[in-house]
Amino acid sequence: MAHVLVMPRQGNTVESCVIVGWRAAEGQSVAVDEAVCEVETDKATFDVPAGSAGVLLKILRPDGDDVPVLAPIAVIGQAGEDWRAAVAAAGGDVAATPTRPPAEGTAAPAAPAVGASQAQAAEAPVSPRARKRAAAEGIEASNLPGTGPGGRVIDRDVVAAAAARPLRSVAPAPADFPGPFTDTPLKGIRKLISERMRGSLTSTAQLTFNMSASAARLQALRARFKSSEPSLGFTDVTIGDLVNFAVSRVLPRFSSANATLENGVLRTYDRVHLALAVDTPRGLMVPVIRNADLLSLRQLSAEAKRLAGACQAGAIQPDELSGGTFTVSNLGAFGIESFTPVLYAPQVAILGVDAISQRALPGPDGSVAFEPRIGLSLTVDHQIIDGAPAARILKAFADAIADIDLLLA
Asked: Is the distance from CB of 32 to CB of 145 less than 8 angstroms?
Protein backbone atom coordinates (compact mmCIF):
# COMPACT_ATOMS: atom_id res chain seq x y z
CA MET A 1 0.00 0.00 0.00
CA ALA A 2 1.25 3.46 -0.87
CA HIS A 3 2.36 5.77 1.95
CA VAL A 4 0.06 8.72 2.69
CA LEU A 5 2.14 11.68 3.88
CA VAL A 6 0.32 13.83 6.43
CA MET A 7 0.99 17.36 7.70
CA PRO A 8 3.28 16.73 10.70
CA ARG A 9 2.43 18.10 14.12
CA GLN A 10 4.80 20.99 14.84
CA GLY A 11 4.54 21.23 18.62
CA ASN A 12 1.53 21.04 20.90
CA THR A 13 0.15 24.49 20.09
CA VAL A 14 0.22 24.38 16.27
CA GLU A 15 -3.19 23.72 14.73
CA SER A 16 -2.29 23.97 11.05
CA CYS A 17 0.59 24.81 8.71
CA VAL A 18 0.81 26.64 5.39
CA ILE A 19 2.49 24.83 2.49
CA VAL A 20 5.14 27.29 1.29
CA GLY A 21 6.14 25.20 -1.71
CA TRP A 22 6.62 21.69 -3.05
CA ARG A 23 10.24 20.69 -3.70
CA ALA A 24 9.33 17.49 -5.50
CA ALA A 25 6.97 17.10 -8.46
CA GLU A 26 4.41 14.39 -9.14
CA GLY A 27 6.10 11.41 -10.77
CA GLN A 28 9.48 12.19 -9.18
CA SER A 29 11.36 9.56 -7.18
CA VAL A 30 12.08 10.55 -3.58
CA ALA A 31 14.18 9.12 -0.76
CA VAL A 32 12.93 8.43 2.77
CA ASP A 33 14.59 11.50 4.32
CA GLU A 34 14.27 13.78 1.29
CA ALA A 35 12.42 17.05 1.90
CA VAL A 36 9.42 17.02 -0.42
CA CYS A 37 7.86 20.31 0.69
CA GLU A 38 8.39 23.31 2.93
CA VAL A 39 5.72 24.36 5.42
CA GLU A 40 5.40 27.17 7.92
CA THR A 41 3.44 28.03 11.01
CA ASP A 42 2.87 31.56 12.24
CA LYS A 43 6.27 31.24 13.92
CA ALA A 44 8.76 29.25 11.82
CA THR A 45 9.42 27.26 8.63
CA PHE A 46 10.10 23.52 8.42
CA ASP A 47 10.95 20.88 5.82
CA VAL A 48 8.69 17.84 5.56
CA PRO A 49 10.53 14.61 4.67
CA ALA A 50 8.94 11.99 2.42
CA GLY A 51 8.85 9.37 5.15
CA SER A 52 8.97 6.59 2.56
CA ALA A 53 11.06 5.86 -0.53
CA GLY A 54 9.25 5.71 -3.83
CA VAL A 55 7.51 7.91 -6.39
CA LEU A 56 5.52 11.01 -5.47
CA LEU A 57 2.24 9.75 -6.91
CA LYS A 58 -0.04 12.62 -5.97
CA ILE A 59 0.16 16.06 -4.35
CA LEU A 60 -3.09 16.44 -2.40
CA ARG A 61 -2.70 20.03 -1.19
CA PRO A 62 -1.24 22.85 -3.32
CA ASP A 63 1.17 25.67 -2.50
CA GLY A 64 -0.34 28.26 -0.18
CA ASP A 65 -2.88 25.88 1.33
CA ASP A 66 -3.40 26.12 5.10
CA VAL A 67 -3.55 22.46 6.14
CA PRO A 68 -4.65 21.09 9.55
CA VAL A 69 -2.01 18.96 11.24
CA LEU A 70 -2.26 15.22 10.51
CA ALA A 71 -4.30 15.88 7.33
CA PRO A 72 -3.07 14.06 4.16
CA ILE A 73 -0.93 16.19 1.86
CA ALA A 74 0.63 13.69 -0.58
CA VAL A 75 0.87 10.02 -1.57
CA ILE A 76 4.17 8.19 -2.12
CA GLY A 77 4.35 4.67 -3.56
CA GLN A 78 5.38 2.63 -6.56
CA ALA A 79 4.90 3.89 -10.11
CA GLY A 80 1.40 3.09 -11.35
CA GLU A 81 0.03 2.40 -7.88
CA ASP A 82 -3.50 3.66 -7.14
CA TRP A 83 -3.09 6.72 -4.95
CA ARG A 84 -6.87 7.04 -4.49
CA ALA A 85 -7.05 3.70 -2.70
CA ALA A 86 -4.30 4.78 -0.33
CA VAL A 87 -6.07 8.04 0.50
CA ALA A 88 -9.38 6.25 1.05
CA ALA A 89 -7.71 3.64 3.28
CA ALA A 90 -6.22 6.46 5.37
CA GLY A 91 -9.65 8.00 5.88
CA GLY A 92 -9.10 10.87 3.46
CA ASP A 93 -11.64 12.34 1.05
CA VAL A 94 -10.57 11.54 -2.50
CA ALA A 95 -13.36 13.68 -3.96
CA ALA A 96 -12.09 16.75 -2.08
CA THR A 97 -8.61 16.50 -3.59
CA PRO A 98 -7.96 19.62 -5.74
CA THR A 99 -7.17 19.00 -9.39
CA ARG A 100 -5.40 22.31 -9.93
CA PRO A 101 -3.87 24.99 -7.72
CA PRO A 102 -6.26 27.68 -6.47
CA ALA A 103 -5.87 31.37 -7.16
CA GLU A 104 -3.38 33.45 -5.18
CA GLY A 105 -3.79 32.74 -1.45
CA THR A 106 -5.03 29.69 0.37
CA ALA A 107 -7.11 27.00 -1.33
CA ALA A 108 -10.85 27.42 -1.00
CA PRO A 109 -12.29 24.87 1.43
CA ALA A 110 -15.23 22.65 0.61
CA ALA A 111 -18.54 24.48 0.81
CA PRO A 112 -20.61 23.79 3.92
CA ALA A 113 -23.67 21.59 3.57
CA VAL A 114 -26.76 23.39 2.30
CA GLY A 115 -29.47 23.73 4.92
CA ALA A 116 -27.27 23.96 8.01
CA SER A 117 -29.33 25.91 10.49
CA GLN A 118 -28.28 29.15 12.17
CA ALA A 119 -28.81 27.44 15.52
CA GLN A 120 -26.31 24.72 14.64
CA ALA A 121 -23.78 27.32 13.45
CA ALA A 122 -24.19 29.40 16.59
CA GLU A 123 -23.58 26.38 18.80
CA ALA A 124 -20.54 25.14 16.87
CA PRO A 125 -17.24 25.36 18.80
CA VAL A 126 -14.58 27.66 17.37
CA SER A 127 -10.88 26.81 17.25
CA PRO A 128 -8.43 29.35 18.77
CA ARG A 129 -6.80 30.00 15.39
CA ALA A 130 -10.19 30.56 13.74
CA ARG A 131 -11.22 32.93 16.55
CA LYS A 132 -8.06 35.03 16.09
CA ARG A 133 -8.49 35.25 12.33
CA ALA A 134 -12.18 36.10 12.72
CA ALA A 135 -11.30 38.96 15.10
CA ALA A 136 -8.79 40.28 12.58
CA GLU A 137 -11.31 40.05 9.71
CA GLY A 138 -14.22 41.51 11.68
CA ILE A 139 -16.26 38.31 11.32
CA GLU A 140 -18.44 36.69 13.99
CA ALA A 141 -16.99 33.17 14.01
CA SER A 142 -19.81 31.64 16.05
CA ASN A 143 -22.25 32.39 13.21
CA LEU A 144 -20.26 30.42 10.64
CA PRO A 145 -21.00 26.82 9.63
CA GLY A 146 -18.04 24.68 10.69
CA THR A 147 -16.36 22.10 8.46
CA GLY A 148 -14.09 20.73 11.19
CA PRO A 149 -14.71 17.62 13.29
CA GLY A 150 -18.11 17.76 14.99
CA GLY A 151 -19.02 20.95 13.13
CA ARG A 152 -16.09 22.85 14.68
CA VAL A 153 -15.40 26.23 13.07
CA ILE A 154 -11.78 26.16 11.96
CA ASP A 155 -9.42 28.54 10.20
CA ARG A 156 -10.45 27.64 6.65
CA ASP A 157 -14.10 28.44 7.43
CA VAL A 158 -13.16 32.00 8.38
CA VAL A 159 -10.94 32.32 5.29
CA ALA A 160 -13.85 31.21 3.10
CA ALA A 161 -16.24 33.66 4.77
CA ALA A 162 -13.79 36.52 4.31
CA ALA A 163 -13.26 35.63 0.65
CA ALA A 164 -17.01 35.49 0.04
CA ARG A 165 -17.56 39.09 1.11
CA PRO A 166 -18.21 41.46 -1.82
CA LEU A 167 -15.23 43.54 -2.84
CA ARG A 168 -15.54 47.27 -2.28
CA SER A 169 -15.19 49.37 -5.40
CA VAL A 170 -12.05 51.43 -5.67
CA ALA A 171 -11.97 54.71 -7.56
CA PRO A 172 -9.56 54.66 -10.52
CA ALA A 173 -6.25 56.40 -10.02
CA PRO A 174 -5.94 59.84 -11.60
CA ALA A 175 -4.19 60.06 -14.94
CA ASP A 176 -1.20 61.79 -13.38
CA PHE A 177 -0.63 59.03 -10.81
CA PRO A 178 3.08 59.35 -9.91
CA GLY A 179 4.95 56.73 -11.81
CA PRO A 180 5.22 52.93 -11.80
CA PHE A 181 4.65 50.86 -8.67
CA THR A 182 4.79 47.26 -7.47
CA ASP A 183 2.00 45.32 -5.70
CA THR A 184 3.22 42.53 -3.43
CA PRO A 185 0.47 40.38 -1.87
CA LEU A 186 1.20 39.45 1.73
CA LYS A 187 1.74 35.72 2.08
CA GLY A 188 3.59 33.18 4.17
CA ILE A 189 4.93 34.26 7.52
CA ARG A 190 4.57 37.98 6.66
CA LYS A 191 0.84 37.48 6.21
CA LEU A 192 0.58 35.49 9.43
CA ILE A 193 2.47 38.18 11.38
CA SER A 194 0.15 40.80 9.87
CA GLU A 195 -2.93 38.87 10.98
CA ARG A 196 -1.55 38.27 14.47
CA MET A 197 -0.71 41.94 15.03
CA ARG A 198 -4.03 43.17 13.66
CA GLY A 199 -5.86 40.61 15.77
CA SER A 200 -3.99 41.80 18.85
CA LEU A 201 -5.02 45.41 18.29
CA THR A 202 -8.67 44.59 17.56
CA SER A 203 -9.18 42.20 20.50
CA THR A 204 -7.45 44.14 23.31
CA ALA A 205 -7.55 47.60 24.90
CA GLN A 206 -3.92 48.62 24.57
CA LEU A 207 -2.44 51.52 26.51
CA THR A 208 1.25 52.50 26.63
CA PHE A 209 3.20 54.20 29.44
CA ASN A 210 6.67 55.73 29.02
CA MET A 211 9.42 56.30 31.58
CA SER A 212 13.20 56.40 31.72
CA ALA A 213 15.62 54.90 34.21
CA SER A 214 19.18 55.80 35.12
CA ALA A 215 21.56 53.66 33.07
CA ALA A 216 24.76 54.71 34.87
CA ARG A 217 25.11 51.50 36.89
CA LEU A 218 23.89 49.44 33.95
CA GLN A 219 26.68 50.78 31.74
CA ALA A 220 29.30 50.51 34.49
CA LEU A 221 28.42 46.88 35.14
CA ARG A 222 28.45 46.06 31.43
CA ALA A 223 31.93 47.63 31.15
CA ARG A 224 33.19 45.54 34.09
CA PHE A 225 31.77 42.36 32.56
CA LYS A 226 33.30 43.10 29.16
CA SER A 227 36.79 43.52 30.64
CA SER A 228 36.48 40.61 33.10
CA GLU A 229 38.35 37.32 32.93
CA PRO A 230 36.70 35.24 30.14
CA SER A 231 36.70 32.12 32.30
CA LEU A 232 34.15 33.79 34.59
CA GLY A 233 31.61 33.71 31.75
CA PHE A 234 30.44 37.34 31.88
CA THR A 235 32.19 38.91 28.88
CA ASP A 236 29.22 38.31 26.54
CA VAL A 237 26.56 39.62 28.93
CA THR A 238 24.86 42.59 27.25
CA ILE A 239 22.79 45.55 28.36
CA GLY A 240 19.77 43.67 27.04
CA ASP A 241 20.62 40.64 29.19
CA LEU A 242 20.80 42.83 32.28
CA VAL A 243 17.41 44.40 31.47
CA ASN A 244 15.88 40.95 30.93
CA PHE A 245 17.31 39.81 34.26
CA ALA A 246 15.75 42.79 36.03
CA VAL A 247 12.39 42.14 34.38
CA SER A 248 12.46 38.47 35.39
CA ARG A 249 13.04 39.42 39.03
CA VAL A 250 10.37 42.13 39.17
CA LEU A 251 7.51 40.30 37.43
CA PRO A 252 6.77 37.78 40.24
CA ARG A 253 5.67 40.79 42.33
CA PHE A 254 3.01 41.70 39.75
CA SER A 255 1.00 38.63 38.81
CA SER A 256 -1.49 40.67 36.74
CA ALA A 257 1.29 41.50 34.25
CA ASN A 258 2.72 37.98 34.14
CA ALA A 259 -0.47 36.62 32.67
CA THR A 260 -2.56 35.72 29.63
CA LEU A 261 -6.18 36.50 28.78
CA GLU A 262 -8.18 34.07 26.62
CA ASN A 263 -11.92 33.62 26.22
CA GLY A 264 -12.63 35.95 29.12
CA VAL A 265 -10.38 34.04 31.55
CA LEU A 266 -7.28 35.63 33.09
CA ARG A 267 -4.54 33.12 33.86
CA THR A 268 -1.66 34.28 36.09
CA TYR A 269 1.59 32.36 36.34
CA ASP A 270 3.90 31.55 39.24
CA ARG A 271 6.94 31.33 36.98
CA VAL A 272 8.16 33.90 34.43
CA HIS A 273 8.36 32.55 30.90
CA LEU A 274 10.05 35.50 29.23
CA ALA A 275 9.39 36.01 25.51
CA LEU A 276 11.92 38.01 23.50
CA ALA A 277 11.09 39.75 20.21
CA VAL A 278 13.75 38.71 17.65
CA ASP A 279 14.22 40.27 14.23
CA THR A 280 15.00 37.65 11.57
CA PRO A 281 15.30 37.67 7.76
CA ARG A 282 11.87 35.98 7.63
CA GLY A 283 10.17 38.39 10.01
CA LEU A 284 9.44 38.77 13.71
CA MET A 285 9.84 35.72 15.95
CA VAL A 286 9.24 35.56 19.70
CA PRO A 287 11.12 32.69 21.40
CA VAL A 288 10.55 32.02 25.09
CA ILE A 289 13.04 31.65 27.95
CA ARG A 290 11.39 29.14 30.29
CA ASN A 291 11.49 29.83 34.03
CA ALA A 292 13.54 32.98 33.50
CA ASP A 293 13.04 34.01 37.13
CA LEU A 294 14.97 30.91 38.25
CA LEU A 295 17.96 31.39 35.95
CA SER A 296 21.18 33.14 36.88
CA LEU A 297 22.34 36.09 34.79
CA ARG A 298 24.82 33.91 32.90
CA GLN A 299 22.19 31.22 32.26
CA LEU A 300 19.63 33.75 31.08
CA SER A 301 22.17 35.43 28.78
CA ALA A 302 23.23 32.10 27.26
CA GLU A 303 19.64 30.98 26.67
CA ALA A 304 18.68 34.28 25.05
CA LYS A 305 21.59 33.98 22.62
CA ARG A 306 20.81 30.33 21.86
CA LEU A 307 17.18 31.08 21.04
CA ALA A 308 18.00 34.17 18.96
CA GLY A 309 20.60 32.20 17.00
CA ALA A 310 18.13 29.39 16.32
CA CYS A 311 15.58 31.93 15.05
CA GLN A 312 18.14 33.52 12.74
CA ALA A 313 19.18 30.11 11.39
CA GLY A 314 15.59 28.90 10.93
CA ALA A 315 16.24 26.04 13.37
CA ILE A 316 13.94 27.15 16.18
CA GLN A 317 11.46 24.54 17.43
CA PRO A 318 7.72 25.36 17.53
CA ASP A 319 7.43 24.70 21.27
CA GLU A 320 10.20 27.26 21.85
CA LEU A 321 7.99 29.91 20.25
CA SER A 322 4.96 29.46 22.49
CA GLY A 323 3.97 29.65 26.13
CA GLY A 324 5.36 33.10 26.94
CA THR A 325 3.83 35.03 29.84
CA PHE A 326 5.46 38.43 29.23
CA THR A 327 7.43 39.89 26.31
CA VAL A 328 10.42 42.23 26.05
CA SER A 329 11.02 44.04 22.74
CA ASN A 330 14.41 45.76 22.67
CA LEU A 331 15.04 48.37 19.94
CA GLY A 332 17.76 50.23 21.82
CA ALA A 333 20.47 49.09 19.40
CA PHE A 334 18.66 51.00 16.62
CA GLY A 335 18.71 54.28 18.53
CA ILE A 336 14.94 54.31 19.08
CA GLU A 337 14.09 56.74 21.89
CA SER A 338 10.43 55.75 22.34
CA PHE A 339 7.92 53.44 20.69
CA THR A 340 4.60 51.72 21.31
CA PRO A 341 5.09 47.95 21.52
CA VAL A 342 2.07 45.88 20.46
CA LEU A 343 0.85 43.17 22.82
CA TYR A 344 1.77 39.63 21.86
CA ALA A 345 -1.70 38.24 22.58
CA PRO A 346 -2.88 36.49 24.66
CA GLN A 347 -0.27 38.11 26.93
CA VAL A 348 -1.51 41.22 28.72
CA ALA A 349 1.73 43.23 28.93
CA ILE A 350 4.91 43.91 26.95
CA LEU A 351 7.95 46.06 27.73
CA GLY A 352 9.68 48.08 25.03
CA VAL A 353 13.34 48.91 25.72
CA ASP A 354 14.71 52.06 24.09
CA ALA A 355 18.16 53.48 23.50
CA ILE A 356 20.38 54.97 26.21
CA SER A 357 20.87 58.72 25.82
CA GLN A 358 22.38 61.54 27.84
CA ARG A 359 19.77 63.73 29.51
CA ALA A 360 20.17 66.96 31.44
CA LEU A 361 19.14 66.78 35.09
CA PRO A 362 19.13 69.62 37.65
CA GLY A 363 21.65 69.27 40.46
CA PRO A 364 20.95 70.10 44.14
CA ASP A 365 22.83 73.40 43.81
CA GLY A 366 20.92 74.50 40.72
CA SER A 367 23.59 73.31 38.28
CA VAL A 368 22.84 71.01 35.37
CA ALA A 369 24.40 67.56 35.10
CA PHE A 370 24.06 64.94 32.38
CA GLU A 371 23.10 61.35 33.14
CA PRO A 372 22.67 58.33 30.84
CA ARG A 373 19.00 57.29 30.82
CA ILE A 374 17.37 54.25 29.23
CA GLY A 375 13.84 54.62 27.87
CA LEU A 376 11.15 52.11 28.79
CA SER A 377 7.71 51.73 27.17
CA LEU A 378 5.16 49.46 28.84
CA THR A 379 2.03 48.47 26.91
CA VAL A 380 -0.76 46.80 28.89
CA ASP A 381 -4.22 45.47 28.17
CA HIS A 382 -6.46 47.99 29.93
CA GLN A 383 -9.09 45.26 30.25
CA ILE A 384 -6.87 43.79 32.98
CA ILE A 385 -4.39 46.45 34.13
CA ASP A 386 -5.50 49.97 35.03
CA GLY A 387 -3.36 53.09 34.75
CA ALA A 388 -2.09 53.33 38.33
CA PRO A 389 -1.06 49.63 38.58
CA ALA A 390 0.66 49.92 35.17
CA ALA A 391 2.58 52.96 36.42
CA ARG A 392 3.69 51.03 39.52
CA ILE A 393 4.85 48.11 37.40
CA LEU A 394 6.85 50.34 35.07
CA LYS A 395 8.41 52.21 38.01
CA ALA A 396 9.44 48.89 39.55
CA PHE A 397 11.16 47.94 36.29
CA ALA A 398 12.91 51.33 36.17
CA ASP A 399 14.07 51.09 39.80
CA ALA A 400 15.41 47.57 39.33
CA ILE A 401 17.33 48.59 36.20
CA ALA A 402 18.74 51.70 37.90
CA ASP A 403 19.93 49.55 40.82
CA ILE A 404 20.94 46.54 38.77
CA ASP A 405 24.11 46.00 40.80
CA LEU A 406 22.09 45.75 44.02
CA LEU A 407 19.62 43.39 42.34
CA LEU A 408 22.47 41.06 41.36
CA ALA A 409 23.94 41.23 44.84
From this structure: no
Q: How far apart are CA 318 and CA 69, in angstroms?
A: 13
Reported as a single tens digit per residue, the pLDDT across 162-187 is 888 766 555 665 666 677 778 888 77
Query: CB-based burial of residue 25 (10 Å sphere; 0-12 exposed, 13-18 middle, 19+ buried)?
Result: exposed
Closest of 137, 140, 136 to residue 124, by C-alpha: 140
Q: pLDDT tens digit string along 313-364?
A: 888 888 899 999 999 999 999 999 999 999 999 999 999 999 999 999 888 8
- Residue 152 to residue 290: CA distance in whole angstroms: 32
Catalytic annotation, residues: 382, 386
Buried b / exposed e over 358-397, threshold 16 CB at 10 Å, is: eeeeeeeeeeeeeebbbbbbbbbbeebbeeeebeebbbbb
Q: Is the dihedral of CA 90, 93, 95, 100 positive or negative?
A: negative
Residue 149: asked if its preceding bond is cis (omega within 30°), the reply is: no
Round to whole Å and give the CA distance between 313 and 282: 10
- What domains can be seen in the chain, in order of their start residue? 3-96 (2.40.50.100), 120-164 (4.10.320.10), 206-408 (3.30.559.10)
What global pTM score does this model have? 0.65
Q: Are 315 and 352 in contact (CB under 8 A)?
A: no
H or E element, residue 146: none
